[in-house]
Design goal:
Layout (H helix, E strand, L loop, with lengths): L1 H6 L2 H16 L2 H13 L6 H7 L8 E4 L1 H10 L6 H15 L4 E2 L11 H5 L4 E6 L2 E6 L6 E5 L16 E7 L2 E7 L6 E5 L2 E4 L5 E10 L2 E9 L8 E10 L17 E4 L5 E3 L6
Parallel strand pairs: 5-6
Antiparallel strand pairs: 1-12, 2-14, 3-4, 4-5, 6-7, 7-10, 8-9, 10-11, 11-12, 13-14
C-alpha cells in the first residue's frame, strides 16, 4: 500500500480513497446501483419544450421604450400616491424643474421593478427557453430579469431582490406576469429623478402583448399599500428594431462620481458642476 501512494498521482489517490469510503458505508449492491445510475442517466428530452417555444408570439429583436409616451403618462396618468409619498414626489419634481434633480439611480443602484419597465430609456430583449423568459437590458450593469413559465408558485419567503420573483402564464397571445419579493429600496419612479421607494409590500401584475408587428404593450398594475392609496394601472409602449446591426451593449457604472450631498430623504443630489 505504501508503494501505491508513492507512485500514484495525488488526485488518483484521493479518488481511490473516496471510492473506498463510499463502499465502506453503503452496502455493495446499493453502491454499484448508485454508480451505474449516476453515470448513465440520460438528460431529459427537451425537444417538445423547444417545439412549444416556436409556437409563442414572436418577440425577437431589440425593443426600445417609447420615451414620448412615458412623458405623456407622467402628466396624464398620475399615480394615487399617499399623502406622504405625494409630498416627496412634489419636492423631487420641483427640484428637477429647478435644475437640481435627485440622483435616485446614482451610486450604481439598479432601476429594478417596476421602474425598468416604466421609465427606462434603454434597449432590452426577450430570450425564450423552456420554462423561463429572460429579459436582458442595457445600463446599470445588472439588468437581468427572469420570468418563470414552468408552473411554479412564488416561494413563501422569497429573497428580496431589485427585480423581485416573477412567475407567468400565457393567455392566448398575452403573457401575464405576477411579481413579488421586490427589495423595499427599489423605486417606483415616474422619471429618472422622481420616485419613491416601494415600501416593501408591493405586488406587480403585467399583461404583455403585441398590438402590431413591431409594437409591444406592457399593461402594469402596481399594488403598493404603503405608498399608494389604491392600485395604479399604467401602460408602457416598446418599439422593435429587427436589424442584425442592433444589439444591446454592456453598461458599466462608476460609483459615486456625481454625488457630493444627499437631501432630507437620503437621495443623492445631482451636481451639474461636475461637467464644467
Amino acid at each position: 500500500m505504501t508503494k501505491f501512494f508513492e507512485r500514484t498521482p495525488r488526485r488518483a489517490v484521493i479518488r481511490a480513497l473516496n471510492t473506498l469510503l463510499i463502499f465502506a458505508v453503503i452496502p455493495s449492491s446499493t453502491a454499484i446501483s448508485v454508480a451505474v445510475t449516476a453515470g448513465n442517466q440520460a438528460p431529459a428530452d427537451r425537444t417538445a419544450a423547444w417545439a412549444d417555444i416556436a409556437k409563442l408570439p414572436d418577440w425577437d429583436g431589440i425593443w426600445l421604450p417609447h420615451i414620448g409616451d412615458q412623458r405623456d403618462q407622467e402628466k396624464g396618468n398620475v399615480a394615487p400616491w399617499s399623502e406622504a409619498s405625494a409630498e416627496i414626489i412634489n419636492n423631487m419634481m420641483k427640484a428637477e424643474d429647478e435644475g437640481r434633480p435627485a440622483g435616485i439611480f446614482n451610486d450604481c443602484m439598479p432601476e429594478g421593478m417596476p421602474t425598468w419597465m416604466m421609465i427606462s430609456h434603454n434597449a432590452m430583449e426577450f430570450q425564450y427557453s423552456p420554462g423561463r423568459i429572460t429579459l436582458l437590458g442595457e445600463s446599470d450593469g445588472n439588468r437581468l430579469r427572469r420570468i418563470y413559465t414552468d408552473g411554479r408558485a412564488h416561494p413563501q419567503d422569497p429573497d428580496l431582490t431589485y427585480h423581485g420573483h416573477s412567475i407567468a402564464h400565457w393567455e392566448k397571445e398575452t403573457l401575464v406576469v405576477d411579481t413579488i419579493g421586490v427589495d423595499p429600496d427599489a423605486y417606483i419612479a415616474i422619471t429618472e429623478a422622481v420616485g419613491v421607494r416601494n415600501g416593501g409590500d408591493m405586488h406587480i401584475v403585467e399583461r404583455i402583448y403585441l398590438v402590431d408587428e413591431d409594437t409591444l404593450h406592457d399593461e402594469i398594475t402596481i399594488i403598493a399599500p404603503t405608498v399608494m392609496t389604491k392600485p395604479w394601472k399604467t401602460t408602457r409602449i416598446f418599439k422593435r428594431l429587427r436589424g442584425a446591426q442592433y444589439d444591446i451593449v454592456e453598461g458599466v457604472c462608476l460609483m459615486g462620481m456625481d454625488i457630493d450631498q444627499v437631501d432630507e430623504d437620503g437621495n443623492a443630489v445631482f451636481d451639474p458642476s461636475i461637467f464644467e
